[in-house]
Design brief:
Length: 230
Amino acid sequence: MDDDLKQAKAKERRRVRRLQMVAALGGVGATAGVLGVGIAKSGEGWMALVGVVLALAGLGAVIASFSLAGRFLPDGDTIRVENARGGYRDSLQSQRAYWGAYAPLLILFPTWKSIEAAWAIAGRQAEALHWMMVGLGPLCAVAILLVVAGLDNPGDRKMKRLLEDELTLSFRRSSLSLALGVALAGMVVVFALGLWKPQAAVATMPGLMFVTASAAGLRYWQLDRRAAGG
């Protein structure tokens, strides 16, 4: 084992530890946000204020975790270490495909809270919590689309080259084309819904973004499984 590989392994271990810490921060923030929303809704007086502060702190932690995670994504050292084990490209492709399949399940709750918040805002019954929650679902949907499009780690050229073979690019084109079709069809439905009840059309938008991102993620996973013979 040469010195360069040892150094790369040490850097990779540090990257993984830091990414785990960032993920823990996001998990704690999400938990605090949910608890804060519950306390703010059920509490009165200073307890409601505590709930609002807790929810805001949780939201801030989640946003910070997303921002920090971008600094600790797989990089050139990851590629070097994993290539020493063999089959890293296929493993990485499978991980991203499974993310596309399971991520919609993870963002169901944030999407539902965004729909509730959008309904309240459109009905002019919004509170501070509604303005805080309305963007959660769309942000999560955008995160899925970024992964499918390969834009989640734009700063690392080695990783970008690793994920831009012809097969992967064809997966992306097919997945994003399906997502575009779903979005256009959904916009027609939302437009018709808005003619009947504008409040419902506004509240439907986070759901439309969820369906669009889910279609892209599931299509990517389906194509990967088909290519793998699974």
